[in-house]
Amino acid sequence: MWRLDVTEDENDLQAERLETKALMEMDYQKADASKLFELLNYADMRIRQKAQFALVDKGDSENLAKAIAQQEHQLMRIHGIWGMGQLMAQGSDHGSVLMSYLSDEDAEVMAQTAKVLGDVKYAAAGPQFIALLENEHPRVQFYAAQALGRLKDQTAVNGLLQMLVENKDQDVYLRHVAVLALSRIGVEQPILDLLDSPNKSLRLAAVLVMRRWSHPDLKYFLTDEDEYIVLEAARAINDDWSVEEALPDLASLLKNTQLQSEALGRRVINAASRLGSPETLAWLVQFAQSDEIPVVLKVEAINALSQWAEPSLLDRVDGRFRGHQKRDTELLKHHLKPMIARLDIENEMQVKVALVGMFAQVGEQAASQKIVELLENNEGAQVRAAALLALGQLDYELLDQMVMLGMRDKSSLVRAEAIGLLTEVPLGKENFDDTMRAVLGEGSVLEKQKLFKVLGQLDTLLTQGLMEKLIVKMGSNNLDPNLHLDLSEAIARTHSEYLSLQLAALVTDKSSDFDEVMYGGSIENGRNYFYEGSAGQCVRCHGVEKGSLGVGPNLGEIGGLLTRKQLLEALVEPSKRLSPGYGVVTLTLKGGQVVAGILMEENDEELILKTTEAEPLDIPLERIQTRTNAPSSMPPMGQIMTKRELRDVIAFLASMEGD
Q1: What pLDDT is stored for residue 508 in this prediction?
Q2: Which residue, of 82, 129, 199, 456, has the fewest CB within 10 Å?
Q3: Distance (Å, rounded) from C-alpha 236 to C-alpha 249?
Q4: Sign of CA dihedral 613, 618, 621, 622
Q5: DSSP state of 314
Q6: In 3-state terms, what secondary structure has residue 104?
Q7: H helices within 133-199, ranges in order?
Q8: 617 forms bridges with which residues in the sheet?
C-alpha cells in the first residue's frame, strides 16, 4: 500500500526521499566503516539494516559494540545488539560483551539483549535470565522466559512458575511464553505436581504445558473444581492431534448430567462418538435422554447418534481429518429403540426435529408410526416437515398418502417438503394436474420453487405441456421473477432439447444472461455465502457491520442505495459501476482536457473527483466527452459464483438497508 502525501507545491520531504533513494542504491560492501556506523541511526529502518548487515559481513564487532555503548540513540543500540547476535550465530564469542547489557537502564535494550542471547542459546546468561523473570518490565520478562526455554534450563522451572503466580493470568503473552518455556525444558514432575495446587493460574499452566506434551495425565484435570480448567483439559485431549489415551476419561463425563458448558459438552460428546465402543454408546444414549442438560447439548448428542454407525471423516468439533469408521448399525438400533418414546415426551421443537432426523438417518422403521402421529397431530410446522421428510427416507409403505396429507397442510414449509417427495410416489395425470393447479395457483414462492425443482425430475411426457405454458408466461412477463431461475434449472434437468431451444430463444430476445437471478433468492443462504463462501470470499474485502472498514466499500446500507438490477450489475460487471471513494476515473472533457481522480460522488448532474488539488473537483456531465473507469480489483462474480449463489447474495444485499 502506497500513500501519496506530498504535492509538487508542498514537497517538504523531497530531499529526505532523494537521500534515502541514493542510500538504497549504495554499495554497502565498499562503504567506509565510519559511514556504516552513522547509518545505524538513520530514520529509515531499511538503511539501518543494510548498514548493520554490512558491518556484520565485515566482522566489525568494534563498531557494533560502540553503537551499543553510546547512550543517545536507542535504535542504534538495538541494531548493534542484533549485529552482535549475528556474529555470535556465525561462531564469534561476544556473549560477555552483551551480557553486561542485561542490566542496562533502558528496558528495551535489556529485552533485545535477552532475545539475542536466547536465540544463540548462550548458556552462561542463564542465571541472569532467571533473575530477569522478576523484572518490572513485561517485555524483559517475556524475552528472558523465551531465552530460558531455548536453553532448556532446568534450574529455571521454579522461577517460571513464580512468574505465572505473579502474573495471575492477566498478561496472556507472559502466560504463553512461560508455558512454552516449561514445555521446552521438559521436566515433568514439577508440572504433574500442580494437579493439587490451590493456585488456579498454576493448574491452568500445567494443562497448557501438558497439552504441548500430549500427556495422558491430562485426564486428571477433568475433575478440577474450576470449569474453565476442565474445558482446557478437554480441548487438550480432543482437539488437534488429540491425546487418545485420555479420550475414554473425557467421554465418561457424559455420566455427569449436570454438564452445562456447550464448549465442554461438545467435546465430551465427540470423544464418545470417536471411541464408538458399546460402553460410550450407552453413555451417549443416556445423556441424550437427560432432562437436566441444555437443549443445545441434547440436540448435539442426538445428532452424534445419527452418525454413530458411520461418523464423519472430519472431527465434529475442530474439523480435523479423523478417518473412516464403520460400526454395527444393528447395535445402534438396539440402543436407540427405547428413545422412540422420547418422541412423545420431548417438548422442545429442536429436540423433536433432531430425534425424527436421527431415526430416519439410521433407518429405524419401528419409529415410523410415531413419526406419522407427529405429522398428523403436532402443532409445530418444522416438526411436521421433518416428519414427512423422515417418512420419505424410511420408505414408509403409505408414503403416497402422507405426501397428499402434507400437500394439504396449513404450513407452506410442510407443503414444500411434500412437493419435494412427489418424485418418490406414483403420480397419475389427474393427480399431477390437480397438484400443479393448487401449487401454482395458491402456493408460496418457496413451494413453487420446490415444485419447479421436482418438475425437472419427473417424466417429460407428464410435464412438457406445463413447462411450455410456463415458458410462454415467462416470455410475456406473467411469471413471478422469483421463479425464473428455477424454471431454467428445471428445463435443464429434463435434458429436453425442444424445451431448451424454446427457453434459449426467449432469453435471447427478452433478458440478459443474469436477469433471472435478481429475484427469488434466500437471504439466509446469501448471508452464509457472504461470510463463508470460499470461492467468492466476499467478507475479505467488504463489511456490513456499522463502522467496519475494508478494501472494498461497506455494504451495510447497500440495499437502500442500489436497485436489484444495479446490485446484479455491480456483481457481474464490477468495473462498470464504481463505489464512491473506491475507484479511479479518467475523463476527457470537451475541448481535449484530461482529468483523472478518485470518484467521490456521482449524480444525474455531475461527478465529484478527488484529485491532487486541495478541494474536490466538480465536473458537470455535459462537459464530459468520454469516461474511462479503471478496472475494479473485484473480479466479475458471474465467472466465480453459480446463478443460484448470485441470486442468494443479491437477496442478502437487497435486505441490507441500514437502520
Answers
A1: 47
A2: 199
A3: 13
A4: negative
A5: B
A6: coil
A7: 138-151, 157-167, 172-185, 189-192
A8: 609
**Residue 145 vs residue 631, higher pLDDT:** 145
The phi-psi region of residue 419 (left if phi > 0; otherwise alpha if psi is between -120 and 50; otherwise beta) is: alpha
Q: What is the number of other CB atoms lying within 10 angstroms of the CB of residue 104? A: 18
Query: Average pLDDT, stretch 263-279?
Result: 96
- Highest mean pLDDT: which range of 352-356, 550-554, 601-605, 628-632: 352-356
- CA angle at 263 for the pair 359 and 199, rounded to the nearest 5°: 145
pTM for the model? 0.77
On whether residue 581 sits in a domain, the answer given is yes
Half-sphere exposure of 603 (CA within 13 A, CB side): 6
Contact in structure between 23 and 39 (CB atoms under 8 Å): yes
Of 239, 273, 303, which one is at a domain's C-terminal end? Answer: 239
Query: And the C-alpha cell for 611?
Result: 484529485
The boundaries of the domain holding residue 95 are 17-239
Cell of residue 488, nine digits? 431454467
62, 225, 248, 573, 577 from 629: Cα distances, Å: 58, 64, 63, 12, 8
Report yes or no on 466 lying in a domain.
no
The pLDDT, as a whole number, for residue 633 is 67
Handedness of CA 472, 476, 480, 484 (dihedral sign): positive
Task: Judge whether residue 155 has pLDDT over 60.
Answer: yes
What are the strands of the beta sheet with 594-602, ordered from one edge? Answer: 617-620, 606-610, 594-602, 584-589, 624-629
**pLDDT at 511 exceeding the cut of 60:** no
Looking at the domain assignment, is residue 6 inside a domain?
no
d(CA 160, CA 144): 10
CATH code (residue 230): 1.25.10.10
Q: What is the distance between the alpha carbons of residues 181 and 177, in angstroms, rounded to a whole number?
A: 6
pLDDT at position 581 is: 65
- Supply the DSSP string of 494-529, one letter for each residue: HT-HHHHHHHHHHHHHH--TTGGGSSS--HHHHHHH
Residue 102 placed within a domain? yes
pLDDT tens track for 352-374: 999 999 999 999 999 999 999 99
Q: Specify the residue for cell string 473507469.
A: 629
Cell of 610: 478527488
Checking if the pLDDT of 30 tops 90, the result is yes
Boundary of a domain, candidates 239, 258, 281: 239
Element (H, E) at 405: helix 399-407
Q: Per-residue pLDDT averaged across 611-631, rounded? A: 83
What CATH number has the domain bearing residue 619? 2.30.30.100
How far is the C-alpha of 362 from the C-alpha of 308, rounded, in Å?
9
Whether the per-residue pLDDT at 17 is higher than 60: the answer is: yes
Rounded Cα distance between 333 and 594, Å, is 78
Q: What is the DSSP letter of 321?
A: B
Half-sphere exposure of 594 (CA within 13 A, CB side): 2
Number of domains into which the chain is organized:
2
How far separated are the first and last CA of the chain, in Å rounded?
A: 33
DSSP annotation of 631: P
pLDDT 10s digits, 386-408: 999 999 999 999 999 999 999 88
